[in-house]
Amino acid sequence: MQILGGIALHQGYLAEMNTGEGKTLTATMPLYLNALTGKSTILVTTNEYLVLRDAEEMGQVYSFMGLTVAAGVRARQDEKISNDEKREIYNADIVYTTHSALGFDYLFNNLVTSAEDRFMREFYYVIIDEADFVLLDSAQTPLVISGAPRVQSNLYEMADFFVKTLEDYEVEEKKVWLTDQGVRYAEQYFGIDNFYGREYFEINRHVTLALRAHMLFAKEKEYVVAENEEIRLLDSGSGRMMPGVKLRGGQHQALEVKGHLKVSQENRSVASVTYQNLFLLFPKMAGMSGTIA
Prior knowledge:
single chain, 13 strands, 293 residues, six-stranded parallel beta sheet, elongated
């Protein structure tokens, strides 16, 4: 069973192996074989514990066979890994890591200021453990690195006040927009000649954010205000609070202004990738799981 699984993984298939059939050991064969090419060979799994356990236990096999192995995560979450350490990790013949660590490392590797600061090798072969979880359940989840804009906009309050005086707009499902009359009123209110002109993009953006905050986000339904005067989003499926999760592109700040709360620093996305697109960067990809057919 394990040898057949190893052959399937080497040939780029998804292998269904039930619990107890030895996925961990099976992966050593195709990992070793593909690492002999001298190219980047990576196994991604779902959590840090499995990475550290498998890299240590299976690492003995690779060391015995003359190859190097490294784990791309640390036992302690707060322990930072420097770029030099990351270069050493990704230069190992075989790397065990999690899908999120690999994704963020890929983004940071592309945000460096010079080519010498890069720490990753070109992708070649990857085995995805629990492939259905990573490639289906999490496929569309974007990994995002946010950065603060240099100057926080002062248009939030103006746009919020404008929307409170506005009557000419249309709402349909999860969309809201100004009518022609509303656009004329906006031009008159802000003293501009073309609401959709490029030079007035920021005014347009903030009006849109304020409109959405008032018309599409209902308190106690989409969000709540926590005791510390902080906006907490609610999960649409379970209704549970999602601490730490913020709306992007200024929408969170527009909600804070609507609720007369202290406005937090706006974050803008500086880099993002979905798991789906991340793994498509590997010319050779395979996966295994006990729950695929």
